[in-house]
Amino acid sequence: MVLYVYAITAASPSYDLDGLEGVGPGSSPPRTVAAGPVAAVVGDVSEEVRPARRDLLAHQAVQERLMAAGAVLPLRFGHLAPDEDTVREALEAGAEAYLSALERLRDCAEFHVRATQDDEEPLLRRALDEVPGVRDLDARIRAGDPDPRLPLALGELVTRQVQAWQQTTADALVRALEPFARDRVVQEPTGRDFLNLSLLVPDDRADALLETREELDRELGDGAALRFSGPLPPYSFVG
Hints:
With 239 residues, this protein is of the alpha+beta class. It contains six helices and nine strands; from the N terminus they run βββαββαβαααββαβ.
């Protein structure tokens, strides 16, 4: 039997964990293990935890309950410790840093922002209309120029131009959104995304952020759209 560790909180006031299910097979309901001014929320688990949907939801439910009651340092899914003594030792060793982080996150939540290129056609048309090199290569190909290098050159030039426009848009979005946040983390976008941004937003700024989101979404154009998630536990701002 090992411990599944959900989060770190202040030891006082205590958090209501009644009715919450534990993560993993043979799990116990979440409980706290305190060491001085800080505590960890843990539960017993009988074997290795896998990210099954039921367990992911149980993990998230604990984080949301804790976040609704006060500042929390949420741990990502799957964090294990061998026993309570090990947890207490870690809490004692890091108490000052944990308290500082909890204070920084107090009355805040994470909002996750993605800018996604749902439709590339508007940017491709824009490149043909606005970029001389693209127009010239496209005209040569349409005129029957047999040079086999032309399609590749055209594709590379269009890709570079689209990426440049997207980076400019992403930078502008960050500048527009960061005044609402206490902190921000820009991560590498994937897939059709060209912005992957996490914001640590004070509770009293959340409504204004969402209002600005609607304005930015209307202005974005070029086949792009904003995706907002939140309020969420502040995973990106722990540590």
